Amino acid sequence: MRLECLVPMYLLYSSLLAIGFLISIPYWAFQMLRHGKYGSGLGERLGRVAGRLKVQQLGSAIWVHAVSVGEVQAVTELISGLRQKFPQHRVVISTTTATGQKLARSRFGDPSDESERRGDFGSQCPHL
């Protein structure tokens, strides 16, 4: 597919995603108040890069995204292998769910260095 065809589709996708997000704010605000969920890490899911990740470190980083608990369990061997094969690289594990984040922190170490949360806005990628 040519690049000229992809740009309008990306803009359409991003616009629809933003509109859907705005329409769903009341629902998620109600759920946050009702269940006490979704509030933790909200800024990071909306694209704010956590201060612990802004610190410049030597070397490159490898980013592994595991959406939930099942995927965190599935990438455990991968993370071990990456850390052994590329010790000079920082391995960053991101999750979407609170339970996935909790498991990632317990399995992979110091949360101030290795974990963060991300949502699904494509515009977040350039921040890293």
Structure in words:
The protein is mainly α and 128 residues long. The chain contains seven helices and three strands, in the order αααβααβααβ. The protein has a three-stranded parallel β-sheet with strand order 1-2-3. The radius of gyration is 17 Å and the shape is globular.
Summarize the structure.
This protein has 7 helices and 3 strands. It is mostly helical.
Q: Which stretches of 5+ consecutive residues score pLDDT under 50?
A: 111-128
Structural class: mainly alpha
- Rg, nearest Å: 17 Å
- CA distance, first residue to last residue: 27 Å
- Helix percent reads 55-70%
Number of helices: 7
Which range does the strand content fall in? 5-15%
Topology summary:
Layout: H1 3-35, H2 42-45, H3 51-54, E1 61-65, H4 69-74, H5 76-85, E2 90-95, H6 98-108, H7 111-114, E3 115-117
Parallel strand pairs: 1-2, 2-3
